[in-house]
């Protein structure tokens, strides 16, 4: 039989990995993708739709089964329950309708591309007082708030602290440099959102950048871009009137009146747009392929050192720091080339 490549996750990293494996391995492998939903959520454009007053669910969902079918790739809509690297098996429950019986699927190669949990549930007060732009539900909640409830008060935009695992401690970058650490999972979205929010305020006669405070748990926002680039960004943003708080440490609580930070500082705000910690799914924790937080340990070829038939791509990989789409996209091709080489 043809080797069976099972890809867990059907968003950018999962879909990209499956398509690249098909491209580079041709018909020599059988490929199956498992995801809990049957559509790809185009997250990066959610803020653009929201600030234009449009429902993102109408424009930013792409059907997964029909897309995969073009490359003869199978699809299962299911909740992943467990991975057994020794038995080379994935346990799942089909979730099209409640009450499905547990199932299992064997693999020859496994690509873990399930992304992470966005831990809004760990932020006290978020449900009552917080907003964000990471999916259709939250995007539409913010769209409604802007259209019907927002009174023109101060705006706070920023990130909770990211808890990076120890999965990169043995990874050396080219030149022997140690792998970087990050205090925020991905700070492109807060920077993009603050600029979009300022444009929206101006267009609706509610003020400008001086109403917005952007905050980061780190010493420097978007620290992966480097001090020179970020320094220029902060200089321009400061000149426009944006307020900036660094070394916030974490979000302690969101209240009706603002954001309470672990540093002890409070930011007064009517509108609080927050990006949470990125946490591995529960079924990833405690596995022999995972680090102490639950991210998949790999070398620079995206291959797990203990289980060479297990790969990771995208946000689920420990080596993906910060959690950027461009990094995940590059990893898809690396994974496919490794499987094709085998």
Automatic annotation (TrEMBL):
GO molecular function, one term: oxidoreductase activity
InterPro entries recorded: FAD/NAD-bd_sf, FAD/NAD-binding_dom, SQRD
Domain FAD/NAD(P)-binding: 4-133
SUPFAM superfamilies recorded: FAD/NAD(P)-binding domain
A Pfam family matched in the record: Pyr_redox_2
PANTHER family: FAD-DEPENDENT PYRIDINE NUCLEOTIDE-DISULPHIDE OXIDOREDUCTASE (PTHR43755:SF1), PTHR43755
Protein name: Sulfide:quinone oxidoreductase
Organism expressing this protein natively: uncultured prokaryote
Gene name linked to the record: sqr
């Amino acid at each position: 039989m043809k080797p069976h490549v099972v890809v867990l996750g059907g968003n950018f990293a999962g879909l990209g990995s499956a398509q690249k494996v098909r491209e580079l391995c041709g018909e020599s492998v059988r490929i199956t993708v498992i995801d809990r939903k049957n559509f790809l959520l185009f997250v990066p454009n959610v803020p653009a739709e929201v600030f234009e007053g449009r429902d993102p669910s109408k424009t930013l969902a792409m059907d997964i089964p029909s897309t995969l079918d073009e490359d003869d790739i199978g699809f299962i809509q299911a909740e992943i329950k467990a991975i057994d690297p020794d038995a080379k098996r994935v346990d799942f429950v089909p979730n099209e309708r409640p009450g499905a019986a547990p199932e299992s699927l064997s693999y020859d190669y496994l690509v873990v591309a399930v992304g992470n949990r966005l831990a809004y549930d760990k932020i006290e007060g978020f449900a009552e007082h917080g907003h964000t732009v990471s999916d259709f539900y939250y995007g539409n909640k913010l769209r409604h708030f802007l259209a019907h409830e927002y009174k023109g008060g101060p705006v706070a935009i920023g990130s909770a602290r990211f808890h990076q695992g120890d999965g990169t401690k043995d990874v050396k970058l080219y030149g022997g440099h140690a792998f970087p650490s990050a205090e925020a999972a991905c700070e492109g979205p807060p920077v993009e959102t603050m600029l979009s929010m300022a444009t929206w305020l101006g267009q609706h006669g509610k003020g400008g950048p001086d109403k917005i405070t952007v905050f980061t748990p780190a010493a420097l926002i978007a620290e992966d871009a480097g001090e020179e680039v970020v320094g220029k960004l902060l200089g321009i943003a400061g000149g426009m009137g944006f307020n900036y708080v660094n070394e916030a440490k974490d979000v302690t609580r969101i209240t009706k009146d603002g954001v309470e930070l672990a540093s002890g500082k409070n930011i007064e705000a009517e509108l609080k747009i927050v990006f949470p910690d990125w946490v591995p799914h529960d079924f990833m924790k405690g596995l022999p392929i995972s680090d102490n937080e639950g991210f998949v340990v790999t070398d620079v070829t995206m291959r797990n050192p203990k289980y060479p038939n297990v790969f990771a791509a995208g946000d689920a990989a420990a080596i993906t720091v910060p959690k950027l789409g461009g990094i995940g996209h590059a990893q898809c091709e690396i994974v496919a080339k490794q499987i094709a080489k085998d």
